[in-house]
Description:
With 297 residues, this protein is mainly alpha-helical. It contains 15 helices and no strands. The chain is globular and about 55 Å long.
Amino acid sequence: MKKASFSKAINYFKLIRITSWPKNFFVFVPAIFSKHIFETAALKNVILAFFIFSLASSIVYIFNDIMDASKDAIHPLKKDRPIAKGEIAKGKASLLLLVLFVIFLTITFRLKFDFVMIVWCYVIVNLLYTLFLKKIVLVDIFCIASGFMLRVLAGAFIISVLISNWLILTTMFLSLFLAVMKRRVEIASSPNALEQRDVLKDYSLNFTDQIGAITASGVILCYALYSVADRTVKSFGTEGLVYTTIFVIFGIFRYMYLVYKKEKGENVIEVILTDLPMMINLILYVLTAIYIIYLRY
């Protein structure tokens, strides 16, 4: 009995996709780069934003799994999702979706208006994506990318800070890069790609590779320009942030290697957490950036 209950609980954890919640750490970006991350009030607000986005993303994931159950069942990885595998009935998933939505609705009415609008925009865009936007070439990757952008904007609004235009552009290019790499892996790794996602017929490996190269270049250039911008140097009192560019370059190149040579990249969190060089690079970047921003002077 205990084993069955534990197995059922695991299935529900899979359904709300807790393993994808680390994506919501993007809400911390504005607090880190505005030098507010160690302020108690700001940190509490950003942590709250993280959990609200986690709740919102779980709502989106459940809705997506309910709508796409039949196609997920023939996907080499998604076939193990609880609804596609038949471990959770659509009715029970719908009930959980309703409960989470009521909680989300109740919480968001109590928060700052501009932050709430961003979170709701995230939910609406992703629901529309599941319903029909995912079938429109290029619009689909912009919808995927918007999630990362909205997280960063929400992180800025929740603590009422302005973020650099260069940092916004960096996030935009990074978001598009991750989205198109996801499409690239879907095309390359699955023999039933067109059956699983209709829009893939409008993509090709060559097309995604070109977009990938452009967006990867955009990430590196925009971050490099952010690191040496007058506003950045003045804010941090040093030009040292430019040295963190090497970690960004390595991270982009390593990710491309994993996509092109290992056919990984459909799940960005899985890539980062299962590839040791990526994890080490990320840790070194964070430690170096925090030292330069907060501890150098």
